[in-house]
Amino acid sequence: MPIDYNQFIHPQDRAALESLKKVPLFDTLMRGFMKIYDERVEHAINMASKLRLGPNQRPEIYAHLVDICDKLGIDIPELYIALDPNPNAWTFGESKPYITLTSGLVDLVSDRELYATIAHECGHIICHHVLYAQVAAKILELGMGYFGIVAALAKPLTWAFQYWRRKSELSADRVEVYCLGETDTFVREAMRYCGCGSGQHSADEVAAFLKQAEDYAAELQDSFYEKALQAFYIKDMDHPFMTVRCMEVIRWFKDFRDKLPEAADAPKKLSW
To answer: 126-146 burial, b if ≥16 CB within 10 A, otherwise e?
Structure first.
């Protein structure tokens, strides 16, 4: 039975999307996008240039996807690996979603972290992020002029999309730890992307990273100037800072784990 995705939606994700829909010319942009965008083109490019995973192609990775979709009660999307040394993953396709992992990601992360990444991308699918994320991506790729929107309105609308994209990551993070049943993997994955590289991290190192995240949160709370500075710095980013994501998802997991449908199967203590 499909899970009610609303239990994963972060309040800031919901509020940001509502604000985005109120931005002038948003409806015009959406209509223009639907006229020019054809998912079949993206699908053809995938088939022509990427490795499609399945029971007979990297089955150990594909098995992660099958397990995650079973937990979430969603159809299994296509899963691809693209040759790219930069570690990354993304989801596209509204009517027929697909997930792409880069070869750099597959080579860098552990098997457990790869499972976590796939769960995160499935989180965007179950939370219905894909359509708006596609529009945001095409805006950045093609520019507002392609959609007939004047430059004076381009930046505010771009920032509104980017703000929502950052908040949508917080919802997908919740789906990720739900599928994992713990937050330890998420934190260690965050440490890797912050510069820790490959290898195992000791309990003391994890604790120090979480203390760093707490210190960052406290610093923002102490100064309006710090909040304004950070808001200006991140306005063009499509992902929140990893320390912010760690604090948000740990707080949510601790508060709501016992309410989740599969809470009995989740570990009662975090492994660190």
So the answer is: bbebbbbbbbbebbeeeebee
Tens digits of per-residue pLDDT, 165-213? Answer: 999 999 999 999 999 999 999 999 999 888 876 667 788 999 999 999 9
Nearest to 121 by CA among 83, 185, 68: 68
The residue type at 21 = K
Q: Which of 135, 173, 237 has the alpha carbon at shortest distance from 9? A: 173
Q: What is the pLDDT of residues 31-64, one digit of tens each?
A: 777 677 778 888 899 999 999 999 999 999 999 9
Residues 161 and 139: beta-carbon distance below 8 Å = yes
Helices (H), the chain: 11-21, 26-36, 39-49, 59-72, 103-108, 111-126, 130-142, 151-180, 184-191, 203-222, 224-234, 242-256
SS3 at position 212: helix
Segment 98-120 mean pLDDT: 96
In this prediction the pTM is: 0.87
Distance of CA 180 to the CA centre of its chain: 15
Helix-helix angle 151-180:130-142, to 10 degrees: 140
Residue 198 tokens read as 């490959």
Written as one string, the DSSP assignment of 63-126 is: HHHHHHHHHHT-PPPEEEEE--SS--EEEE-SSS-EEEEEHHHHHHS-HHHHHHHHHHHHHHHH
As a whole number of angstroms, the distance between CA 228 and CA 209 comes to 24
pLDDT tens string 57-73: 999 999 999 999 999 99
Give 233-266 pLDDT, tens digit per residue.
Answer: 888 888 999 999 999 999 999 987 766 555 444 4
